[in-house]
Structure to design on (233 residues):
């Protein structure tokens, strides 16, 4: 308990003093995870909608792949992203391994199946006749997809929150593709692991508390928007 108390006090001290290193790590965490989540939302919502509203051979196989990918271990993602971005890999010419861009790629790969899976579930919960009614009114399939996304937007907010939650707290892939370089690729999760390995448990607990507060406040904002939309319907 004493160690935890020391960690809490350390976190309060860091927040009040606006420790420069911690501030930079926190800002980088927000940037990296925010961009990765945005990418996953664009890809995931589009893919999930296409899967949900179309019937095609192998649809069940596609859904099973999406559902399996939702639980994909981050270290596996980190391994394959590292291989692809390695200097001799297919995308090695980009030279982004051990940069924040590599972390964004890895986190986007982790979050996209989560967003896709929730999007598919949200679309399938809509009345089946709704698609026919929209098309009967003269809408194109693209317009129909846009309308369905608007109808399912409350559930899609949950997809955004799940995607962001999955990457902001992720450690395995980030440390593999980012390298935990001080002042460059170090984020809250990788910094916590490093401080723990050094035996600086008070700093590690402080960073964990900051990470929790960050995740909480961002999800609080998203939940507020979601509920506001719900109340306006």
């Amino acid at each position: 308990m004493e160690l935890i108390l020391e960690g809490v006090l350390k976190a309060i001290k860091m927040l009040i003093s606006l420790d420069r290193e911690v501030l930079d790590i926190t800002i980088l965490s927000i940037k990296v995870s925010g961009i990765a989540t945005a990418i996953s939302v664009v890809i995931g919502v589009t893919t999930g909608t296409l899967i949900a509203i179309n019937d095609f051979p192998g649809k069940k196989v596609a859904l099973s792949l999406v559902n399996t990918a939702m639980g994909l271990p981050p270290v596996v993602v980190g391994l394959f992203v590292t291989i692809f971005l390695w200097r001799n890999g297919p995308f090695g010419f980009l030279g982004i391994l051990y940069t924040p861009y590599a972390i964004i790629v890895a986190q986007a790969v982790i979050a996209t199946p989560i967003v896709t899976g929730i999007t598919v579930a949200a679309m399938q919960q809509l009345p089946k006749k709704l698609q026919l009614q929209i098309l009967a009114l003269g809408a194109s399939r693209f317009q129909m997809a846009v309308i369905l996304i608007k109808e399912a937007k409350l559930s899609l907010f949950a997809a955004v929150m799940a995607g962001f939650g999955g990457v902001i707290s992720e450690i395995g892939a980030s440390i593999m593709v980012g390298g935990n370089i001080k002042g460059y690729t170090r984020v809250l999760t990788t910094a916590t692991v490093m401080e723990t390995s050094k035996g600086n448990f008070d700093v590690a607990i402080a960073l964990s508390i900051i990470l929790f507060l960050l995740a909480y406040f961002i999800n609080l904002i998203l939940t507020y928007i979601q509920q506001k939309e719900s109340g306006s319907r």
The first helix runs from residue 2 to 17. Residues 2-231 form a domain with the MetI-like fold fold (CATH 1.10.3720.10). The two ends are 47 Å apart (CA to CA).
